[in-house]
Amino acid sequence: MSTLEVELIEKAKQGSHTAISELLSKEQNFILNFMYQLTGNRAEAEDLTQEALIMAYRKIQTFRYKARFRTWLSKIALNLFRQKHRQKRRHDSLILEEIMIPGEDGNPERKVIKRELQWCIIHNLQYHLPEKYRVVLVLRDLQNFSYKEISETLGWSISKTKTMLHRARQTFRSTFINAKCKAFTDDYCCTCEGVQDL
Amino acid sequence: MKCQKAISLLTEYFDDELSQKISSAVKEHLNQCEECKAKYREFKKTLKILKRLKPLD
Questions:
Q1: What is residue A181's predicted lDDT score, i.e. its pLDDT?
Q2: Mean local confidence (pLDDT), B5-25
Q3: Can you give the pTM of this predicted structure?
Q4: Cα angle A148-A154-A157, degrees, rounded to a multiple of 5
Q5: Burial of residue A101 (number of CB atoms within 10 Å: 0-12, 13-18, 19+)
Q6: Which of A174, A160, A163 shows the shortest CA–CA distance to A129?
Q7: Strand, coil or helix: what is A198?
Q8: Is A194 within 8 Å of A94 (Cβ atoms)?
Q9: CB–CB of B46/A171 below 8 Å?
Q10: Is-contact A80 A74, C-beta < 8 A?
């Protein structure tokens, strides 16, 4: 944790609105992406992020430097996500046309392929991975958390973190293959049945 | 090292979380076993695909 961050946290704990705003605004984009990777839905991710930031604002006094500020904030956001995701979402709630695609590519065919790949990744994360695997996979492979940070966020031992991450990666690989996603081929084109249904 | 052991260590091997000794043993196994080497290639490719998920701006 940087000296600047510690200073900001201390000021925030003493009631500085500027300090807490600065602290949270630095983490806002990180939390937004974390929630998007877990929910696959931008609007829902924005709502959860908003709620997490408000909760962190209210609970800053309880921050005890046991982990990084980002890890502490991630735990808050993760708990909110879990509270709202008790029920399994319907398969058809993921609309291909609403999926954002990386980079501007003028080639329409290429654009479709890119969009389908994005759909495929979110589809597999959302509907074919148990939540415990999705969370660990997102933290490690999309948010680049260390094993220690994952264990702090999820309350797992390092050993359990390793085991769960390994299972999560293996499951993600199998679901891609089972969904007949052709993302393993060079053209990165996904033809899993969800896309064909749309 | 046997195949089952090597496969169980792929995650830690990929993340560079193994001791040098064990990491070398996994590497040696992957160099000798075509089946496990192919599995590791597929494992890496899966993660490469996952990392293509576009972040929000």
A1: 59
A2: 95
A3: 0.81
A4: 55
A5: middle
A6: A174
A7: coil
A8: yes
A9: no
A10: no
A42/B42 touch (CB, cutoff 8 Å), yes or no: no
Beta-carbon contacts below 8 Å between A and B? 60
The rounded distance, in Å, linking the Cα atoms of A185 and A177 is: 11
The complex scores an ipTM of: 0.91
Q: How many CB atoms lie within 10 A of CB B26?
A: 22
Contact B11 A162 (CB under 8 A): yes
Residue whose structure tokens are 């500085």:
A16
Name the helix (H) or strand (E) containing A27: helix A17-39
User: Which tokens go with A73?
Assistant: 């904030």
Nearest chain B residue to A34 by CA: give it.
B55
Residue B51 phi/psi, 5-degree rounding, is -70, -10
pLDDT tens track, chain A, 198 positions: 788 888 989 999 998 999 999 999 999 999 999 999 998 888 899 999 999 999 999 999 999 888 899 999 999 999 999 988 765 555 545 555 566 655 555 677 667 767 777 778 888 888 888 899 999 999 999 999 999 999 999 999 999 999 999 999 999 988 877 765 554 444 444 444 433 322
Residues of chain A with Cβ-Cβ distance to B51 below 8 Å are 141-142
Residue of A nearest to B48 (CA): A141
- Domains in chain A (CATH in brackets) are 3-84 (1.10.1740.10), 107-187 (1.10.10.10)
